[in-house]
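thread: overnight batch results

M.L. [08:02]
morning all. the overnight job finished for the chain we discussed friday. pasting input first so we're all looking at the same thing
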Amino acid sequence: MRIPIHGRGTPENPANRFEALAAERDDWSDPDDPLPRTRLLVDHTRSIITRNDSPDVGFETSINPYRGCEHGCSYCYARPGHEYLGFSAGLDFEAKILVKPDAAALLRGELSRPGWKPQTMVMSGVTDPYQPVERRLGITRGCLEVLAEFRNPVAIITKSRLVTRDADLLAGMAEYDAAAVAVSITTLDRKLQQAMEPRAAAPEMRLATIRKLAEQGIPVRVMVAPVIPGLTEHEMPAILEAAAAAGATGAGYIMLRLPLGVADLFIAWLERHVPDRRDKVVSRIRDLRDGRVNDPRYGSRMRGEGPFAHQVSQFFAVSCRRFGLDRDQKPLSVAAFRRPGLPQLEMFAS
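M.L. [08:03]
and the structure it wrote out:
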């Protein structure tokens, strides 16, 4: 078994399923050989709005300022996407980050088009828009400035306290019912969190993030995500109670998903960090997934099926009622959307 790399979710860099050849370093324990540093690669994409038609996710359009994620979450379902770039779903995913410096300009162009239909934009649909490099590059901030200028509604999903940096923009948009944030909390056990999500904010920082956003009048929800059966599902009431006390007004949860190579990476993580729980976790996952470690079917992949999935669902519903997180959430509004400068142009055209 490979030795863990400090600050990384996995030391493995398995073969890319699309490539015929692969090279992987066996050992990172040599003190004379430097550990892998994060590399930033420029993504010269020509469009920034991603569309999807999945019935599971609840949104059609999203913005992903980054591809790959330095948070390094060992369970991240987005890891296989890095293979389309010629990289590995393992260490490459958290150490080779593609950045989109033109994101704000591209977004401005797409929102300015006459054919753009205002709708809620999600940041980020895949990897965290507030991962560590955002502090320096500010690409997410630039996109938010454009969305605020157009008053196009935005919903943010993050594990990072860096989102509070942009509370000024989000609070302004919230006045038009055009902004909301979901803060993801997997566990309140800091030791477990650090092993599982090595470069993400500590649990207490995420609760502080909820509190600060709520104090600024920004609608904020907590996402208990992912729920890891046999490891974290028992924490659901405590997470919901702490989030409600911090100011969250709604909640959701997603069951652990292990698509493609993520399954092997996460099972190796279990063996490395919680070997005594490994068999129980894998057994519970199979119970949820009809004997498999992953079920990609719509309607099942986010929640699972069977008695244990039903038990978790009921556990969540009861806890939400208990802590006041079961209230209907006010939908974001497109009523205030505008195209800056358009009224003046229309005036001269008339």
